[in-house]
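Hi there,

I know you've been waiting on this one. I reran it after we fixed the sequence typo, so this is the corrected version. Both the input and the resulting structure follow.
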Amino acid sequence: MTIFISQLLNGLSNSAILFLVSVGLVIIFGMMDVVNMAHGEFIMLGAYCNCVCVNMLHIPFFVSVFIAALFSGAVGMVVEHLLIRRIYGKVAETLLVTFALTYVFQQLIRMLFGPESQSMEEPVPGLLRVGSVAFPYYNLVLIVMAAAVLAGTLLLFFKTPYGMQLRAATQNRSITQCLGINVANINLLTFGYGCALAGFAGALISPVKGVFPSMGTAYVVDSFLVVILGGLNSVIGSCAGAFVIDESITLMSGYMSQITSKLLVFVIIIVLVRFRPNGLFSAKERR
């Protein structure tokens, strides 16, 4: 029972991390139909920005997290304005351009900081002990932050004029533009917001996962799995998908090897997608 409770709590924190790193991709890929292979690099940019703010400029950690999100969002808006805007609807070109960006960003970081891993102190040290189970306080912070991102994104998309315009553009860009809505600005803000969330996630995970040039690559595949499992344009679905994937892997890893548990979870995902190709939360069901 102790092992089960410990793995359950660890799975919850891992699910929070997976949701944080994948929700930006849900917005960019699921809502904008942009296959952003550079999503992991925006996570990495947020982590490095956070590292510079905390280690060099001595800015408080939770302030630097939001600075990192703004920085990644600004870079994303520049990328959208200069590159992505010209290739909407062209899947092959978008794939190639964003894939090339992964190498550009990684090499720039290596030129500026070197290939060595950067370290950061954990901002909230200590363990929460419940009986024989110990749970880091910072993992609780990650869970709270994930819940805040989920609530804030849902409010933004469903309770604001911008969100209404975004959902209209997602359904039909041409008709939305004919109604007088500036779809180009909506695309710019949405792409920037998705990249800002990626940078926010990178800044939050930097104390526990380490900061190095290729750190974002490890999250790209899992993020796409979350998008596909949860539903292409469903933020709630991405939360559910992250929970299903990481909680299952973590729980089973307590009783078998991690490789075997990942294999079983991937098989379950294949079966689920076979019978629910639109994901757990499709747009049709949400309406």
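Quick highlight: The CA atoms of residues 158 and 263 lie 37 Å apart.

Best,
R. S.
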